[in-house]
Amino acid sequence: MEKRNLYLHTTPVEEAKERYYRAVKECISIRTEEIPVDRSLGRVTAEAVYARLCSPLFNASAMDGIAVEAKKTRGASEEHPLVLRRGEDFQVVDTGDPIREPYDAVIMAEDLLEIDEDTVQIMAAVAPWNHIRPIGEDIVAGEMLLPGHHRIRPVDIGVLLGGGILQVRVHASPSVGIIPTGTEMIPPGQEPEDGQIIDSNSGMFAALVQQYGGEPDRFPIIHDDYEKIRETVKEAVSRDDLVIVNAGSSAGTEDYTVHVLRELGEVLIHGVAIKPGKPVILAIVDHKPVIGLPGYPVSAYIDFETFVKPVIELFTGSSLKARPLEQAVISKRLVSSLKHKEYVRVKVGEVNGRLVASPLARGAAAATSLVKADGVCIIDQNLEGYEAGEQVQVELWRPKDEIRHTIVSVGSHDLIMDFLADLLPDLFPGVHLSSTHVGSMAGLMALKRGEAHIAPTHLLDEETGVYNIAYLKRIFPDREMALIKGVSRIQGLMVKKGNPKGIRGVEDLPGCRYANRQRGAGTRVLLDHLLKQAGIRPEQIEGYELEAATHMAAAALVKDGGVDAAMGIYAAAKAMDLSFIEVGEEEYDFAIERKNLELPFIQDFIQALQSEQFKSRVKEAGGYGTENAGKIILI
C-alpha cells in the first residue's frame, strides 16, 4: 500500500509563520550587490547612501536676469530709478549660471527696463543673495541621501545622481527556483488531452517573484517520480536562494514532496490551519528555504502570499506595504470551521455610503475568483463565520477610490454583464461594474438589504405573463422602485451539437441528464413553470439538483460535463457551439431604487446600455433584442 501524508496536526497560521521565519533568518546569509543608480528603481538599499558632491556645486542664479552687487542698487525706487551698465554694474545670467564675485544678487529680467543692449534701469533695490541658490542649498557633500532598507523611487534616483552617486549598494535579488510537479501536468501551449492539466501556477509564481523583487528560475515539469523530484530539488537548492515545489504536498499516494524534503533536509511545518492552503510544507534544505505549495491555484496563491512573500522580503531587505484593511458589510452568510483561518474572496463596492462585500466561489481550484476579487474577507480560526449583514474586515486588493466608482450588481447572470464591465471603463474612464451572480430572487433581496445598486432580474409572473414588475411591487411595497430596461433574450434548452438525444422540449427531459440553475434564478423559475405546464415533477429529472451558477457554466456542463441538456440563453449555446431548442423570449432588466437613478455612474450605466458599441456587441453574440435598452420604468 502506498504511503499517504496524513495530517495529524495543523499549525496555526501565525505560529507557522513565526517559527519558519525565525528558522530561515538563522540559516541564510543575505547578499548585497552594487549596481548602477539608473538601474536601481524598486531595489532596496543595503546601507545608508551619502552625497559625494554638493548640489548646486556653486552659487547659482535661480532666475534669468542680471547679476549685480546688492550694495550698488541701494536707493533705487520708482521715483529715483537707477541706471546700470553691462560689465561695469551687471552681468547677464540665465537660470543655473554661476554667480561669482563681486556679484552677490540677481534681478529678474521681468523687473528690468532695458534702455539699450548694454544699459538697463531698475526701480527697486535688492538684498544680498536675492534669487541666488547658494552652494549646497539642496545637497551638501557628506549628508545622508537615503537610509538603509529604503525602496528606491524615481525621485530618489534623481537625488542620488545630483549628489554625485553613480553606483549604489542594494540587497541582491534572490533567485527563486520554481519546480512544477505532476504526471498530469503539461506546459502552456501544448494542447491538453483527456486527464491533462495545463501548468498555470508556475507562470503566476514567476510573476509574483518578480513583483516582490526576486528573480524566478523556472524548471521543467517533473513527473510524479520520487528520484526525479529528489534530484531536481537538490539541483535547485544548489543554484537558488529559495525553492518552491509546486503540488505533491497533500495526502495522495503520489504526493512525494514532503518525503523528499525530509530526506534532504528538515521539514519544520507540514499542514497549516489555513483555508484554502492547508497542505503547505515549510522546510530547510542545505541552509536554504524550500516551500512546498499545493497544486490548486487559489491555495497556491494564498500560501505564496502568506509564506513565500515574507521570505523574499527577508532577502530583499524590504517590507512591502501591507494592503489596507476596511470594514464592510457581508452580503451572504459565511460558515467557516474553527479548524482554519479562512480567506474568502469577495467583490467589494460602496452602496449608500458603506462598503459591501459579496463572497465569490470558495473552492481552492476556483482560480478566476482571484481575478474577479476586489479583496478577501479573513475569518479567524476562532470564528464559525458571519451572518449576512454583519460587519467584517476586508483586505482590499483594489484602491478604495476605484471601489467608490464601482456599480455593484447582484443578481441574475447574463453575458451582457461581461460586455458592460468591459465597455464602461472605455466609455467612462474610472467607472467600473462589479457583478455577483446569485440569481434574480437573491439579487432582489440583496437590493432590499441595501447591498447593491442594481439587481439584474428576469422573473416571470405566471398570472400576468409580465416580467419583473410584479416581483418588485411584492418585495418592495414601501419603496419607490424603477426598472432600467435591459435586453430581450431567447431562452431555451442547450443540448449537445446535433441534438443526439432528439430533445424537442421540456417534455423530453425525463430520462435525460440535466444541469439546473441555482434556486431563485429566473431561468430555474422559467423551467419550473414549463415543467408545471407539462405535468412533470422535478424529481423525474436526473440532475435537477445539479446547480450551475451561470449560463456559460451550464453550457460547459452540456459541452463536456456529461449532461444532455440545460436551460439557458441562446448566446451561451452559440458561444459553446451547442444546439439550441427555443422555448421563448424573456426580458432581462435591472431593478433599482429610484433615488439611485441620479447617481453619476448609474447615468453612465444607462448611457452604456443605449450606446451603439453595446448594441453591436449584443448583436454579434446573438439571441438578444435591444430596442428598449436603457429605458426607465417607474414602479
From TrEMBL:
<keyword id="KW-0808">Transferase</keyword>
<dbReference type="InterPro" id="IPR036135">
    <property type="entry name" value="MoeA_linker/N_sf"/>
</dbReference>
<dbReference type="GO" id="GO:0061599">
    <property type="term" value="F:molybdopterin molybdotransferase activity"/>
</dbReference>
<dbReference type="InterPro" id="IPR001453">
    <property type="entry name" value="MoaB/Mog_dom"/>
</dbReference>
<dbReference type="InterPro" id="IPR036688">
    <property type="entry name" value="MoeA_C_domain_IV_sf"/>
</dbReference>
<comment type="function">
    <text>May be involved in the biosynthesis of molybdopterin.</text>
</comment>
<protein>
    <recommendedName>
        <fullName>Molybdopterin molybdenumtransferase</fullName>
        <ecNumber>2.10.1.1</ecNumber>
    </recommendedName>
</protein>
<dbReference type="GO" id="GO:0046872">
    <property type="term" value="F:metal ion binding"/>
</dbReference>
<dbReference type="GO" id="GO:0006777">
    <property type="term" value="P:Mo-molybdopterin cofactor biosynthetic process"/>
</dbReference>
<comment type="pathway">
    <text>Cofactor biosynthesis; molybdopterin biosynthesis.</text>
</comment>
<dbReference type="InterPro" id="IPR036425">
    <property type="entry name" value="MoaB/Mog-like_dom_sf"/>
</dbReference>
<dbReference type="InterPro" id="IPR008284">
    <property type="entry name" value="MoCF_biosynth_CS"/>
</dbReference>
<dbReference type="Pfam" id="PF03454">
    <property type="entry name" value="MoeA_C"/>
</dbReference>
<dbReference type="Pfam" id="PF12727">
    <property type="entry name" value="PBP_like"/>
</dbReference>
<dbReference type="InterPro" id="IPR005111">
    <property type="entry name" value="MoeA_C_domain_IV"/>
</dbReference>
<dbReference type="InterPro" id="IPR024370">
    <property type="entry name" value="PBP_domain"/>
</dbReference>
<keyword id="KW-0479">Metal-binding</keyword>
<dbReference type="InterPro" id="IPR038987">
    <property type="entry name" value="MoeA-like"/>
</dbReference>
<comment type="similarity">
    <text>Belongs to the MoeA family.</text>
</comment>
<dbReference type="InterPro" id="IPR005110">
    <property type="entry name" value="MoeA_linker/N"/>
</dbReference>
<dbReference type="Pfam" id="PF00994">
    <property type="entry name" value="MoCF_biosynth"/>
</dbReference>
<keyword id="KW-0501">Molybdenum cofactor biosynthesis</keyword>
<dbReference type="GO" id="GO:0005829">
    <property type="term" value="C:cytosol"/>
</dbReference>
<comment type="function">
    <text>Catalyzes the insertion of molybdate into adenylated molybdopterin with the concomitant release of AMP.</text>
</comment>
<keyword id="KW-0460">Magnesium</keyword>
<feature type="domain" description="MoaB/Mog">
    <location>
        <begin position="177"/>
        <end position="314"/>
    </location>
</feature>
<dbReference type="Pfam" id="PF03453">
    <property type="entry name" value="MoeA_N"/>
</dbReference>
<keyword id="KW-0500">Molybdenum</keyword>
